[in-house]
Amino acid sequence: MSLLNIISLALVVALTRAGPILNNPSRVLRRDAPAPSAYPLDSACGNEWQYLNFNTTVATDRVHLQTLHDVICGGEMRAISSYGQISAQNVNTPYKRYFPESDDEDDYPTNVKDVLGLIAGASSTDGAIGTVVGTFVVDNLDFAANVPGASDCTVEGTLAYTLEDQVDDLEKIHFCDLSWTRGEASDVDCASLDPFPSTKMDSFSRIALHEMMHYSSIGPNTPVGETIGDCKNGDSEPANDPPRVHGLLDPNQDDNPAVTEINADSYAWMSLDAWMSQNCIAGSDTNNWASFFTQNPPPYNE
Ligand SMILES: *[C@@H]1O[C@H](CO)[C@@H](O)[C@H](O)[C@H]1NC(C)=O
């Protein structure tokens, strides 16, 4: 594994520039760790994530809780992570657009398959999603303000982040306002897509999968062996969208295959690409879903 250039574990829209970071380390009383998934609007499904600081009398909070519930309990998280897993197992086109084939040192496809398998879990034993997801906490507070050096949602373009909050010592996810505007993967109009994967197919589940990748219980508990962060392209901008995650691997662009397995957005876009491909392939051609997108994304610097 080569030396890596990992920035903070935040998902930031690639084209925006980070502004000055405002830290406001106001200390509040230490909260107890949340109890396992007490979904406040309806019953929780198996391994649904846990929630902090949502106020169920506030309409916006209720809508957000419903989105968080639906993305797991409606099966979309398992669907996209499973298709990513299948693509890695078969080493077919979506996988190969973002990750290397195995070499003498690393069995990359198996590593990627194992990482996504932790999230997806097994439908026979794990309820709606992998067991580990039930340990994840989503905090409705923009708590990065408690974490020195971390970017909170006031940094333009920030979609979400995963950090350990120094106030309660919990590793948690926060979704910024921008992320809630992304819809369900199944709502994407297949006819509107380009012949290559693009942000036109983006979904809330892709952002959620990106953040799940960052948890310290994921990368270190797989053959990857380390936290899955946010890597940068050759131009020092975050490798964060389809052209950039493809560009990390592409021999004609960054040609940096080793870092792909520790870049969260590579997993997220590969999985969405695979799911979208099987969802959008024309009816009679379902065995050929991996070739739905006939082109790779254009070079990131074009
Ligand atoms: C929840 O929101 C309501 C309505 O805005 C407010 O009156 C109440 O104090 C809030 N509860 C908490 C615990 O913040």
TrEMBL record:
Gene3D superfamilies registered for this protein in UniProt: Collagenase (Catalytic Domain)
Molecular functions per Gene Ontology: metallopeptidase activity
Region (Disordered): 230-256
Lineage: Eukaryota, Fungi, Dikarya, Ascomycota, Pezizomycotina
Source species of the chain: Letharia columbiana
Secretion signal span: 1-18
Name assigned to this protein: Lysine-specific metallo-endopeptidase domain-containing protein
UniProt keyword list: Signal
